[in-house]
Each structure stands twice: as structure tokens, then as C-alpha cells.
Amino acid sequence: MSLKWLEWAQKIQAISQAGLTFTKDVYDKERYEELRHISADIMNHYSELQIEEIEGLFRNEHGYPTPKVDVRGVVFKNGKILLVKEKIENKWSLPGGFCDVGLSASENVVKEIFEESGYKVEVKKLLAVLDMTKHAHPPQSYHFYKFFIQCEIIGGNSTTGIETSDIDFFDAEHLPDLSLSRNTASQIKLMFEYNENPLKETCFD
Which parts of the chain are beta strand (E)? Predict the structure, then answer.
């Protein structure tokens, strides 16, 4: 859920990034750079992230700041949901990741599912758009919107990818150790509600 220090740090970062994008005054630029450093210092103090890592991420951000988009593929088979085991954490998540420039949300999720699980799918329905700050994700430097998109398997075979070490289907009562930065147990169980009730309206926020 939202942490006040993280909310402050993200807002300070957003103000500094917008200022650095539009200012033409050298003194204002110095002030916005200082704001960016303060934001990174707050995150470093309250989280396990190193300040060099945080400032490196912030320096790579340009233009007016907006939330990043993360897509997650929701695929069911025989009443069980598809999860992949992430190599970086050795924990499980819905297949997905950041949206790539030049691809739509649906094109991104199809690509991610194939790369991480080996399954070819077609998109069926947008189930939810969730603001990660309103859910039980661990603190992260960026503000994300998470798109949960239901898909149906049309081909392919279970195959691990560059980022995944295992693939399996799970029922709602026997979920594995989840990668909480990617998805929470309550979000996975919400996806089961859509599988049980296809007429359930899209959830957002």
C-alpha cells in the first residue's frame, strides 16, 4: 500500500524531472537537480536501494514524467492460472513486463507471454488497470499502472525464456511464492473471479 515517504519522493522526482525538461534558466536547473538528489536520498534512506542506483535511474528519465505501464497476461487452463518463475527473484508471477515503445498493450502482452512461457495466445479482455501504489507491492522508484489482460492459448508449448526458469498452472488455493513487485496474491485471486464470472466489469484503480 502507499507509503507517505515514497509518495513524497516520487512527487519530488516528478517535479524535478518536469523542471529539468522545461527550464532554460541555469540556476533553476541547479535547484531541480538538487530536488532530484533529495528524492533519491529519501528512497535510499527508507529502502534497500542504493543511492547511486536510484540517481542512475532518475538521470535516464527525460521529458514530462508519467506513470510507467506494466502488462500482465492472465491465462487459464482447466481452471488454473499460468505463472512463470522469474530467474532474478526465483519467485512466481503472471507473465509480462514493461510495455515496449511501438507496440500496443495487447501486442506487448502477447509478446511477453510467448517469450516467458512459450505459449502463443490471443487477447480476449482487459480485466483490470491497477495503480501499484494502492496495492501491497514493495516500494519502487517508479510509479506504475499495471494492466491485467486475459488471453487464450492458441498454440505453442511450455518453454522457459531468458527471464524465466519454470512454468506451471496453479489453482487459487495453492499459489506459489509470488514476486510481490510484479503481482500480489489478492490480484491473482481477483483474476480467478474473472475466470469464474466472465461478465464481471473491468476493475480500475
Answer: 68-77, 80-86, 91-93, 96-98, 119-131, 144-156, 164-170, 203-204
Under the banding of pLDDT at 50, 70 and 90, the label for residue 51 is low
> So where are the chain's domains?
4-59, 68-204
Q: Which amino acid is at 23?
A: T
Half-sphere exposure of 155 (CA within 13 A, CB side): 3
Provide the grid cell at 201: 466489469
Read off the pLDDT of each residue in 3-24 and give the average, rounded to a whole number. 82
CATH topology of domain 68-204: Nucleoside Triphosphate Pyrophosphohydrolase (3.90.79)
* Tally of CB atoms within 10 A around 142: 15
Nearest to 129 by CA among 199, 76, 72: 72
* Residue whose C-alpha is closest to residue 191's, from 47, 25, 79: 79
User: Which residue(s) pair with 170 in the sheet?
Assistant: 81
Q: What are the pLDDT digits (tens) for 120-142?
A: 999 999 999 999 888 888 777 77
3-state secondary structure 148-186: EEEEEEEEECCCCCCCEEEEEEECCCCCCCECCCCCCHH
Distance CA 116, CA 100 (A): 15
Task: Give the HSE-up count for residue 181: Cα atoms under 13 Å, Cβ half-sphere.
Answer: 12
What's the average model confidence in pLDDT over 42-66? 69
